[in-house]
Design a protein that fits this description.
Blueprint: H1 2-22, H2 44-57, H3 99-111, H4 115-120, H5 133-144, H6 149-160, E1 164-168, E2 174-182, E3 186-195, E4 198-201
Antiparallel strand pairs: 1-2, 2-3, 3-4
Length: about 200
């Protein structure tokens, strides 16, 4: 048992150190904020698979939920305890027909501080029929927190000037919104994924 605890401590430290080093390579804007997935962020699934393999190698499978494959939307660590309370859906319509239409819908929801709509930008109803308070907190962190407001102000300004272009992504179901914000940042790249007939912000 002491050996297992030591292994868990070592794994935790390794993950923490890996996280600290990753930010330097992620193309974070010059204000240090990257609230949405970008083109520079790659290999997330591989990292989670490596994490899962190490957990199993340490003999810590009992800490994982049955059938857990390390690729849960919420991240590699399984969630335990009571589920978060559900929240109501927004009445706001999100236009997913094109990448730029989705951006327009996102900025309208942002201006209205519509948390439920912001949460739905990256969560298809067929995959997540009901939103909960965890989804709301994630949306607030990504769109409404004071630290990310400078990022979104630049995106809004660029969108109003028409300084947004669409580039192909790394896969057929991906697209990149290139938001030309100028200054030291140059451009922000926001990655979208097509699911079914609509576009969604990459998680």
């Amino acid at each position: 048992m002491p050996g297992r605890r030591a292994g868990l401590v070592g794994l935790t430290l390794a993950l923490a150190l890996a996280g600290c080093g990753a930010d330097a390579d992620r193309g974070v804007p010059d204000d240090g904020v990257a609230p949405v997935d970008t083109a520079q962020v790659a290999g997330g699934d591989d990292v989670q698979r490596e994490w899962l393999a190490q957990v199993r190698a340490e003999g810590l499978d009992l800490l994982l939920a049955p059938g857990f494959d390390g690729l849960d939307e919420a991240g590699p660590v399984a969630s335990f305890g009571q589920p978060a309370p559900a929240i109501g859906e927004s009445a706001r319509w999100i236009d997913r027909t094109t990448p730029t239409a989705l951006l327009d819908s996102a900025l309208a929801a942002l201006a209205a501080e519509d948390v439920a709509a912001l949460a739905r930008l990256s969560r298809p109803r067929d995959e997540r029929p009901t939103l909960d308070e965890d989804d709301a907190l994630d949306a607030e962190r990504r769109f409404l927190a004071p630290a990310v407001q400078p990022y979104w102000r630049r995106v809004v300004s660029a969108a109003r000037l028409g300084e947004v272009s669409v580039r192909p992504g790394h896969a057929p179901d991906e697209a990149l919104l290139e938001v030309h914000v100028g200054g030291a940042a140059g451009a922000y790249l926001i990655r979208l994924r097509k699911r079914g007939d609509g576009w969604y912000l990459a998680g």
